[in-house]
TrEMBL record:
Designated name of the protein: DUF4440 domain-containing protein
Domain DUF4440: 7-102
InterPro entries: DUF4440, NTF2-like_dom_sf
Pfam family, one: DUF4440
Length: 112
């Protein structure tokens, strides 16, 4: 499970995935919410529009200290840091019909 979730998080950080509305719609749960590093709250449609608009300028990122914590039978939380900008990230993934979909994400700036 750790490898699958690591791969899914990497996909969401990949500029090519961020440029694909179809891929984002498939990966983001209908009830998705994000709290951005600025504190702004985004719903699914807002974050899809935001990602599509900024995909071309988004650099590749390196995930470090990736950890997974089970919350229930179909929910897990992942934690990791982005090496390039010192952001600490947390996501909640929900397993539905044998597919993991992200339902929550938060990025918090930290000191490098």
């Amino acid at each position: 499970m750790l490898e699958i979730l690591f791969s899914l998080e990497k996909q969401l950080l990949n500029p090519a995935a961020r440029a694909s509305a179809q891929q984002l719609e498939m990966m983001l749960h209908e009830d998705f919410i994000e709290i951005g590093a600025s504190g702004r709250i985004y719903d699914r449609s807002q974050i899809i529009n935001e990602l599509l608009g900024s995909a071309a300028d988004y650099p590749m990122r390196t995930l470090k200290d990736f950890r997974v914590r089970g919350l229930s039978g179909d929910l897990v939380q992942v934690f990791y840091d982005i090496a390039e900008n010192g952001t600490r990230r947390s996501s909640i993934w929900k397993l539905e019909d044998s597919n993991w979909r992200i339902i929550f994400h938060q990025g918090t700036p930290t000191a490098l």
